[in-house]
Amino acid sequence: MNGSINKNKKTGKWDFIFDGGTDPFTGKRKQIKRRGFESKRHAVDVMTKLKAERLENEFLDLTKMTYSRYMEDWFEERKNRLQKTTFEIHSIYYRNVIKPRLGHLKVQQIAPIQIQKFINDLVNDTNYSEHTIHLIFRIVSASLKKAKVLKLIKDNPAVGIALPKIKRKEIRVWSLEQVNFFISQAKKIKRLTRCHIGFLISIFTGMRQGEILGLRWKDIDFDAQTIFVRQTLTQYAEIKAGAKNEASVRSIHIPNKLVDELKIYRKQVVQEKLFHGQSYHDNDLVVCTRDGKPMIPRNFRKEFYNLVEKVGLPKIRFHDLRHTHATILIQQNVNVKLISERLGHSDIETTLNTYSHVLPDMQKSVSDKLDKIIGM
Asked: CDD domains, alphabetically (predicted)?
């Protein structure tokens, strides 16, 4: 770990740099740099201390490395790969659930039976839902999978663990008649919320909330009647390039009725830009505040629930508009592969599993058609 200490000609202060060894996660050499020391002695002292810390980690006996020690580095890697909200959720579950129960174990000594007991205890001794337990397990499994890649362990002890069966929640959707009622009655509401255009986009496209709130005018080709999903808005109202997964970055053909509504709404946005002038926050967003700022997701959902109450329809989650869109298309015998692509699912199996409740009701229509087309 050779290093050098030099006086910075521009600042007149002392800087140092030394070789910090190989990063076990990236395999790359890492240089440790520090700047701005008032004296050379201070720079020497700090560099010596940092070198000692690096050496301690470098020569750490891997057989003694605890799971909590390993997870410190693993989460540093995850911080740059996960969305902010996802990272924070995973960190909370690690600190509150995983670390107290598994953190003391030596990484190389973790056995499948210990992971199974960990899961069993969550099922029997906590009030966590099946979905939450599956999420907690995925965090553990992913960390141990990485440990195997790094050759810290020979086998992943999380493989083959039995998990609680997730009870499929009944999806609440509106019927086609209720959708038409919502659209017709909303137009009669005095001072209709500006978020209404976002509700229409969901009904006509099945886009996710984050995709709708991240939609820009330049992502809409009015001539080709196509919306391009290229960015999303997080729960913290932060604009994020890309979408949920590769399949989610997609194009969606939209009907004339939505095109007309978007054109009408765009005139309102243009007027707001002129009114606010230089104080307008021009993010080019379709659904935004009056001064152009991103819409806070929870406020957007609140506006939807208020409108639903005003028109007197059964309350559903905003995300259920996406389910409503898909269900209506399935009931109209639209090809499931096309629906899957429209929704941005990673594969058609996701679509079939999510909307399997609709398919049995369609079986009779299939048999009725067979009666008509096959003669006997």
From this structure: INT_ICEBs1_C_like
* Nearest alpha carbon to residue 213 among 240, 192, 189: 240
Helices (H), 2-129: 40-58, 67-79, 84-93, 99-102, 112-125
Please give the tally of structural domains in the chain: 3
3-state secondary structure of 138: helix
Kindly state whether residues 201 and 267 are assigned to the same domain.
yes
Residues 117 and 228 in one domain: no
Residue 343 placed within a domain: yes
pTM: 0.70
CA 128 from chain centre, in angstroms, equals: 21
- Residue indicated by tokens 């006997």: 376
The answer to whether 69 and 108 are in contact (CB under 8 A) is no
Say if residues 29 and 21 touch (Cβ distance below 8 Å): yes
Contacts with 201 (C-beta within 8 Å, 6 or more apart), sequence order: 207, 212, 215, 227, 258, 286, 287
Query: What DSSP element (H or E) covers 309?
Result: helix 297-311
Could you tell me which residues are beta bridge partners of residue 106? 66
The reported pLDDT for the residue numbered 183 is 97
Confidence (pLDDT) at 362: 59
DSSP string for 202-252: HHHH---HHHHHT-BGGGEETTTTEEE--EEE-TTS-EEES-SSGGGS-EE
Residues of the chain under the 50 pLDDT cut: 59
Give yes or no for a contact between 43 and 52, defined as CB atoms under 8 angstroms apart: no
**Diameter over CA atoms, the chain:** 100
Range of the domain at 332: 176-365
pLDDT of residue 56: 61
Please work out, in degrees rounded to the nearest 5, the angle formed at the alpha carbon of residue 215 by the alpha carbons of 344 and 241: 75
